[in-house]
């Protein structure tokens, strides 16, 4: 729940105790659970799901890290231990469909869990939101960003990793009308600098931090907002904006937060 407003988020164990099996499991992810900034994104997406009347639940305290960071850092044994624990939990609840707000969780659950016996329909939230908009189930009649411009940063694990380029752009365009593309975008997009477990280690020697270079490219577009769709990207871009002293001119918003504001939730 938020500090000012209670959000009714169903817990899988509670529904199971009543003999109910929701259509979707919303996989919150470590960032959505523990990072103050990305908790706002998890809340925003939960509000949207409630607004749509979607049958869903979260694992709550039963959710553990997917093991993505451990695998990228080379600890395959730890990854498999985490994955098998999660698979046991998911299968116990007979989960069929999983929605993820984190591309790292999405990639791991979709592409790596099947090798260990975890077979699910894994959906990225930008694809889900785009489908809701295109089908008319999600009606966006308000634009709280009138007169403002926006660009979009492609997360590596969403774009190059899973070829999801258009869905997040379509969602942003549904509110802003236009996305001012950066020179390096889509399959040529520049990493934020945090993928592959780089988020959790000290920077290596070099002339410039990756997130600073990416932030400079955003600033070059002279936009008011930059949309992102990944907790790692949000952290790195927000830090870059702060280091460039552009906090009063440029804001990083997640795709879900844009929809939340447009719906006035």
From TrEMBL:
Alphabetized UniProt keyword annotations: 4Fe-4S, Iron, Iron-sulfur, Metal-binding, Oxidoreductase
Cited InterPro entries: Cys_rich_dom, HdrC_iron-sulfur_subunit
GO annotation, cellular component aspect: plasma membrane
Full protein name: (Fe-S)-binding protein
Superkingdom of source: Bacteria
Domain Cysteine-rich positions: 24-110, 150-237
The species this protein was found in: Ancylomarina longa
Gene Ontology terms for molecular function: 4 iron, 4 sulfur cluster binding; metal ion binding; oxidoreductase activity
